[in-house]
Each structure stands twice: as C-alpha cells, then as structure tokens.
Amino acid sequence: QVQLVESGGGLVQAGGSLRLSCAASASIFRRNAMGWYRQAPGKQRELVAAITTTGSVSIRYADSVQGRFTISRDNAENTISLQMNSLKPEDTAVYYCAADYGPRGTPEYWGQGTQVTVSS
Question: Measured between alpha carbons, how far apart are the two ends of the chain, in Å?
C-alpha cells in the first residue's frame, strides 16, 4: 500500500526552478510532520526541509537551501510541496518525501524518490 506519492522532479538548468509535491494518505498526513530529504551519489541522505502537518506551522530548512527553497502544506489535499528556486548543480539528487516522525526524530514512512538534476 503506497502511502506517499512524489511528483515534480526533472532536469533544469542552474538558476532555474522546480516544484516537488508529495501526496500522503490522510492518516499519515495527520500524524505530526513531513519532510523532504535528498541523497546525491556517494553521499548520505540529508534533510532538506520539514514542516509540521498538524496545528500551527513550524518549518525547518537545511542551511544549504535556506532562502532558495520553500516548503508548504495543503491540509485539504494532504500534500506538501517544495518550491526550489535558484537551483544549483549541487542540488542534484534523488529527493524523497518522508512522514510521521518517531521518538528518535526519524520518519517512519518514505516515498519512492524523484530525481532532480541541475545542469551547469
């Protein structure tokens, strides 16, 4: 049973923009928070941005994307989005949607990943 479905990856030139979306099942979306992670070849998976999905909005960004990326949520559609502007070649990675943070602060659910490639 697929819980998280990502869309919106692709190829873009440096300086361009892409928007990623992640649709969650209602039960997953309502748990606590969702986030976007990325993994580049040969590197560890890292947090890009996270947002609470219940109550007031609280957001966290990686330093490397602060000011360029914007995470948002749509409670009516059970989705989160990641607007990525001023993309750089080093943003190239597989981007994963994640949800339901457990007591250790790690997500319980992961999407299948979507490729983002930024050409120089």
Answer: 38
**CA pair distance 63, 79, nearest whole angstrom:** 24
DSSP string, 28-92: HHTSSEEEEEEE-TTS--EEEEEEE-SSS--EEE-TTTTTTEEEEEETTTTEEEEEE-S--GGG-
Per DSSP, the three-state class of 99 is: strand
Query: Tens digit of pLDDT for each residue in 8-24?
Result: 999 999 999 999 999 99
Beta carbons within 8 Å of 20's beta carbon, 6+ residues apart: 6, 7, 8, 9, 36, 81, 82, 84, 95, 97, 114, 116
Cross-strand bridge partners of residue 36 = 49, 97
Q: Which two tokens stand for residue 5?
A: 């479905």
